[in-house]
Amino acid sequence: MSPDEDFSNLFEITVRKPAHPTIADELEAVAGLRKGISVHVLSGDQLDEIGSFKQTARHLNLVTQVVTETLDAVSEVLLFAYRPEQSWRVNAYLWSRSTLFRYGCSDGLEALTSRILGYSEEQFSEWIAHHRAGRIGWAGPTRLLLMSRQQRQDLVALYGRVLPKDCNPPIICFYSLNQRHVLRPDAQDCIGDRFLVRASFVATALSNEFESVYARRRKADVLAVACTLEMVDQLNNAMTSPVQFRVGEQWLDFETFKNRREI
């Protein structure tokens, strides 16, 4: 496979229906105790919406609150709506945001924030399962990599922590612009004699190369680049997680994959 091929057919087309499709639906859920609080982060061109939000909330006997928060010299306007007895959720949510900013995200912090917002255990479990299927952790975006059997063997010899400096054939790095992260169950069958692995990287990894691809293929859903030795070095320096290996429909960590002896 080459980076100019269409990789979009490797991904599932998943449409996750939002729990509350519109702001009015969400506010009704808050008023009906089906959600704890409504929170919206507004940019400059959305500030005009505050009036209509407050009006809808007032008709439902909800309290509204506008908070301007500055993190790392960037100010954001947060708009809250809640029942009077749920006011504690405002400070709790602001605490979770500042904790996220200072220490990074984690499954535990996401679970806590979900509780603060008032989502059910079932809703959070479904969401976190979807996240794990498509991404590795929280330390940067996940990128998919196509490599040969020998390159995968070399990767295992490097404990799944360093991409091998073997560009024959080039390792292909790709991701979906439309944030489609979950691969089809038969994705491995669609890539011939290449193998899939994935890892997370800092967001700027190969950004110039991906921008160049986007400039040439603006209608493409998936951006892919064939990695040179210099690009492999860049990825290794930007890697924020161990590599996972695709086997069948599963992603396996290094130890599990190595113990399967399916290299």
Can you offer a commentary on this structure?
- The chain is an alpha+beta fold.
- Helices cover 37% and strands 20% of the residues.
- The protein is built from nine helices and nine strands.
- It has helices at residues 23-31, 50-59, 88-103, 107-117, 121-134, 149-157, 207-216, 229-238, 254-260; strands at residues 38-42, 63-71, 74-82, 142-147, 172-176, 195-200, 222-226, 244-247, 250-252.
- It has a six-stranded antiparallel sheet with strand order 7-5-4-6-8-9. Strands 1-3-2 form a three-stranded antiparallel sheet.
Give the termini distance in whole angstroms.
20 Å
Percent in strands: 15-25%
Helix-strand string: HEHEEHHHEHEEHEHEEH
| Lateral arrangement of strands in the main beta sheet | 7-5-4-6-8-9
Indicate the radius of gyration in whole angstroms. 22 Å
Keywords:
single chain; 263 residues; alpha+beta; three-stranded antiparallel beta sheet; 9 helices; 37% helix; 20% strand; elongated
What's this, in brief?
With 263 residues, the chain is α+β, with helices and mostly antiparallel strands.
Element layout with pairings:
Layout: H1 23-31, E1 38-42, H2 50-59, E2 63-71, E3 74-82, H3 88-103, H4 107-117, H5 121-134, E4 142-147, H6 149-157, E5 172-176, E6 195-200, H7 207-216, E7 222-226, H8 229-238, E8 244-247, E9 250-252, H9 254-260
Antiparallel strand pairs: 1-3, 2-3, 4-5, 4-6, 5-7, 6-8, 8-9
